[in-house]
Amino acid sequence: MRKVVLSIIVTLLCVSVNGQEFDLSAEIRPRFEHRHGFQTLFDESQDAADFISQRTRLNFDFEKSYLKLKVSLQNIRVWGDVATLAKDDKNNSVHEAWAEVAVSNDFGFKFGRQVISYDDERIFGEVNWAQQARSHDAIVITYLPSENHQIDAGYALNADEEDLVREVYDVNQYKNFQYGWYHGDFGDFELSFLVLNTGFELTQPTNDTKVEYMQTWGPRLTYKLGEFDFALAGYWQSGKFMRNTVEAGYAGGTAKYRISNSFSVGVGYEYLSGKDMDDTSSKVKAFNPLFGTNHKFNGWMDYFYVGNPHGGVGLSDFNGQINYSRGKFAATIQPHVFAAANTILDQNGRTTSKTLGTEIDLQLTYKLYRDILLTGGYSQMFATKEMEILKGGDRNATNNWAWFMITFKPNLFSIVKK
Questions:
Q1: What is the CATH number of domain 2-417?
Q2: Phi and psi torsions of 306, nearest 5°
Q3: What is the model's pTM?
Q4: What is the pLDDT of residues 251-299, one digit of tens each?
Q5: Fewer beta carbons under 10 A from the terminal one: N or C of the chain?
């Protein structure tokens, strides 16, 4: 990795073409976490988890009239996961490595490992909370028919090595995808529409290389009325997943009101379809947010949809938000009231309540300097017996999570040649 970094720096510094820009920036982000009921209810026979994880990135950005390049090298680690005398560090990776070519002022191509993020990140998101974040190996075509309209088309094709014949794809993710995204700005009203076709390889149980496709499609609308901001989205999923027919849906909306320059409040609701526990059909009825930034939604304790199943019964999430910001300081409080979207059965096969519990999230932020940010938070889950049925653990335990993070994001230097 050291040789790669030096090679990139030397190459870019030696380029003498006029009309170009080069930026070298870094990010170091250590985060302490205390987990005592994070993602699932705590078991008092065990001890809480305490650890420090860290993201380290070096970002190279290059731009001239028709070309943009970005390379983002990163090291993701938990303090202590490599011995102090280790010869090698297993945690290095490439987060982004892409080139974007502008064919004209309104048409361009972007190739390589890149972040794909749209709208509120419900279906496509960066997942920036995760230290490694998410990026895709893809081609993205962008067309700007006018100043207020954008159309993107994306394509990805994955393989785990260079083969002579078709082999099973062993990485636990999609085999390919194709998507189209439109966004239009009509003043106070904005509209987006996403159509996504995701292919999954049938590797189980016979190592079948056949690919089946699931479609995700739907609109998102936003509207601004004075100090009010409204958003409404709905998505439908169809097609096939692991030989089963998919019929799933999502609906969500928010309303926010800015009381003053410092205070704002909001309410929201999300519904993600699921399946009754006594439903014996083979249909997939649980909505899958796919590549979204799931940590942003449904509570920061990640009890739902962050690679974390909860029985496939779907979710109903009524939530609120209070925001305060002044100068370098900001605070957010988010309560959530959770319920299953479908029937839950107890250990005796009897129908129970759908109520799952209440979570309260608090986050504080202070901008120490322009490139140093302090962030911390505390969350607590007040679960019901129905949550125990889905997740296990003990609802009567103190189920909480606390964290503190420092983000250093300096720009190391820039070169502009005119």
A1: 2.40.160.100
A2: -100, 65
A3: 0.92
A4: 999 999 999 999 999 999 999 999 999 999 999 999 999 999 999 999 9
A5: C
